[in-house]
Design a protein that fits this description.
The protein contains nine helices and seven strands. The protein has about 250 residues and is of the alpha/beta class. The chain has a domain at about 35-150 and about 225-245: Rossmann fold (3-Layer(aba) Sandwich), CATH 3.40.50.300. A hairpin with a 6-residue loop joins strand 5 (about 160) and strand 6 (about 170). Helix 3 packs across helix 4 (about 75-85), helix 4 (about 75-85) packs antiparallel against helix 5 (about 95-105) and helix 5 packs parallel to helix 6 (about 125-135).
Length: about 250
């Protein structure tokens, strides 16, 4: 709670919470700064691994869609420009998105670096991102490429079931709920997302191969790509990530 002088009053914060935060900060202080990009087709496991990487390395997670929505809601100058484009049904320009990433990087939670997920999707975006980081005196340290065969993805995605209110996900083959179609925790029905169909996946994969694979080549030339075997179990992928980020 903030007092009238703007000083935070910690007297009402439970000691356990203070200790947990203090220990987290001490642990984070010794971590090297890192700026990471996660690249991979839909269903390759980026969403499973990014929260783990974020906590382990004390990074902030910059998801461009979320950041755009937040900037629009906060009515920042860039957010207002983004809203104007969206209201006209236009795509938000690469320069605007890079500007919003630039703003987000200045938050205290991004002090040790960030994970970018869902951006850059094109080589032009990658170049603009590099130019912006160069002005800040930093650069991308590592690109984690979640490499996986299209056929494996189809099996993964079409068997996926989601609990809408919590975001918990299940898989009819790999992680089934105790009762088919029912969330383990709440007993509420699970849904099959509209875009988790073979037809939608096919068009998303085509876009990924066409637009985003050149981005992997762009960063490979810089020598900063680590290729992960994304068909493996989450635990095995986590080990590969730990090796890549040593």
């Amino acid at each position: 709670m903030a007092s009238s002088q703007g000083v935070v009053d910690l007297s009402d914060v439970p000691s356990m919470d203070l200790m947990t935060e203090l220990l987290r900060r001490m642990k984070c202080a010794s971590k090297p700064d890192r700026r990471l990009i996660l690249i991979g087709p839909p269903g390759s496991g980026k969403g499973t691994q990014s929260p783990i990487i974020k906590d382990e390395y004390c990074l902030c997670h910059l998801a461009t869609g979320d950041m755009l929505r937040a900037a629009v809601a906060a009515k920042t100058p860039l957010g207002l420009r983004a809203k104007e484009a969206m209201d006209k049904g236009e795509l938000v320009s690469d320069d605007l998105v890079v500007g919003i990433i630039d703003e987000a990087m200045k938050k205290p939670s991004c002090q040790k670096g960030f994970i970018l997920d869902g951006f850059p999707r094109t080589v032009i975006q990658a170049e603009k991102l590099d130019q912006m980081l160069e002005k800040q005196g930093t650069k991308i340290d590592k690109v984690l490429n979640f490499a996986i065969d299209d056929a494996i993805l189809e099996e993964r995605i079409t068997g996926r079931w989601i609990h809408p209110s919590s975001g918990r996900s299940y898989h009819s083959k790999f992680a089934p709920p105790k009762v088919p179609g029912i969330d383990d925790v709440t007993g509420e029905p699970l849904i099959h997302r509209e875009d988790d169909t073979p037809a939608v996946l096919k068009s998303r994969l085509e876009a990924f191969h066409k637009q985003t694979e050149p981005v992997i080549n762009y960063y490979t030339k810089k020598g900063i790509v680590s290729n992960l075997h994304a068909e493996k179990t989450p635990e095995e992928i986590r080990e590969e990530i730990a090796k890549a980020l040593k």
